Amino acid sequence: MTVSLTLENVSAHYGSTQVLKDLTLAVAAGELVSLLGASGCGKTTTLRLVAGFLQPSSGTIRLGDRDLTRLPAHQRDIGLVFQNYALFPHLSVRDNVSFGLKQRGADAAERKKRADRMLERVGLSSFADRMPAALSGGQKQRVALARALVIEPPLLMFDEPLSNLDAKLRVDMRVEIRRLQRANGTTSLYVTHDQEEAFSISDRVAIMNAGRIMQLDTPEVLYQRPANSFVARFVGFENLIDMTVVERLGETVTARTKDGALLQLSQERLGAIPDRFILAARPDGLAVARDGNGIPVTLGIRTYLGRAYQYQCAAEGQSYLGNGSLSEPLDTGDRAVLSPVPEQCCILPADV
Amino acid sequence: MIMQTKLHPALIAIASLIFLILIAPLFIILGAAVSDTPFLTFPPQGFTLKWFSNIFQIEAFRTTAITSLQIAFLGTFLALLIGIPAAYALNRFKIRLPSWLSNVFVLPILVPEIVLGFSLMKNITIGLQLPVYTTLLLGHTLLALPYAVRVVGASLASFDFSIEEAAISLGCPPLKTFLTVVLPNISAGVVAAFILAFITSINDVSISLFLTGPGVSTLPIQILAHMEQFFDPTIASVSVLLMLLTVGVMAIVEATLGLTFLTK
């Protein structure tokens, strides 16, 4: 049975500080949604509200047709995987996994059967009688995963589950998590501060900042079409250029930067351009050339990226990062122009 | 690389002297207890075990020993009953509780025991007219409480509360979680707190001095009373037994948890 998770206008406070502001979020049945953001953005608070460890000051939380908002945490039936594994140190691996079954009144034979089958699925059959202290980090997290999955919860939640593992293991484990989540079709909420992890594992990602969701979309859309300057900066659009339209000629728009440089942009290739906007570009979206149409700059430090050279560029009171071709290396102090590559650029609404 | 440094002779001398000062009284008591003289003396003259058998012929030693054990067990038990939940709350809700609150629970060992004993006598025994036994138990519970809160608290400080949340998320109600998940993981702290409080209670004089009364007394108070009437080696032999009890308990701690546990 797969069900959806919905949060409607949920607000939360720590004392007088508001940490979640009218958060609305819907996770479809069987979907894995990540909450991504820096620490303090409210992603862990959201997870703890759904788990029932915190109470919202307003709003409702629903799982399928069940209203969770005022339900005690132990009646919510949610599988949780923690950053520090949170295995029971005094119980064997098998007893850890069957703990949830015991709470549900399963008899000893049933518990053993289901725990052993789940341990087999995570590849830890031969470790069933060990104590958690005798396991490595990756093994511990697999036990934690088995413990959460064995109760067949309608919702799985992950709180930075891979942060304590080394880089190689992180990649293996996230594939493992995705495989088990897909196989069971369990609706999942995944909290992380790691963009690569969130993008690689999720159906959709919610990028959060200061208690709000800034954008909730598929990783592809977030990466290519951020909706605002916060998300753009988050996914690596390092150049955010404030611009004002000065002239429109058919689909060709002439716009001016703050320091007076003029750029000609095509609405056919960039989409509709409002009168005031932000031109967002990653370094490979700003081509550095000796001359041509574009923003005149003075080149700073040049770094070699393998596929291109990257330049720090300075114009009047503004600095940019642009890439230049390998065939024509330029030197620090040279005059050059930056021209946007339309396919690599985004038009964003101006910040208020 | 292991550095072999020679210890300075003065260091060895001072350390040996301190060790001697710490251990000598124990040997003096042991010597005095076996002296074949009708008065306390050291070095012992002759050898006899009759002072040990004399203890068991004096009714008062037997009854007070039983009272002492009862009070120590019950008082420590009550202190843990209050102290474990208090320590849990202090650690679990650290952010929300005022910082001075944890210090309230150590007041009984900060306030001079003689003051505590006197005020308990004045207000509880005389003021509320409670039975002597009840007041004595109350006093010893207070004496044991700081150990319960502090030692169990030290155990809880290193307890990862997300383990508790894991249990709750798996469907275990909060109280059951505390009993089946939290408690087994702080059991070493609970045992250590029990032993420390028990030893403190069974050796206490200052509080008991005020709170004992007609018909109810503890062993250390009986030793004092006996000494005032007969200055014979019986009290030395009682002390030896009391000492052996303490050493025995400590030996159990050392064997099971390691003594370093108590100093953590």
From TrEMBL, chain A:
Query: Under what name is this protein listed?
Result: ABC transporter ATP-binding protein
Record organism: Rhizobium lemnae
Q: Which InterPro entries match?
A: AAA+_ATPase, ABC_SmlMolc_Importer, ABC_transporter-like_ATP-bd, ABC_transporter-like_CS, Mo/tungstate-bd_C_term_dom, P-loop_NTPase, Transp-assoc_OB_typ2
Tell me its family.
Answer: Belongs to the ABC transporter superfamily.
**Has UniProt tagged this entry with the keyword Nucleotide-binding?**
yes
Keyword tags: ATP-binding, Nucleotide-binding, Transport
- The chain positions of domain ABC transporter read 5-235
Q: Which domain of life is it from?
A: Bacteria
Q: Which GO terms describe its molecular function?
A: ATP binding
Pfam families under this entry? ABC_tran (PF00005), TOBE_2 (PF08402)
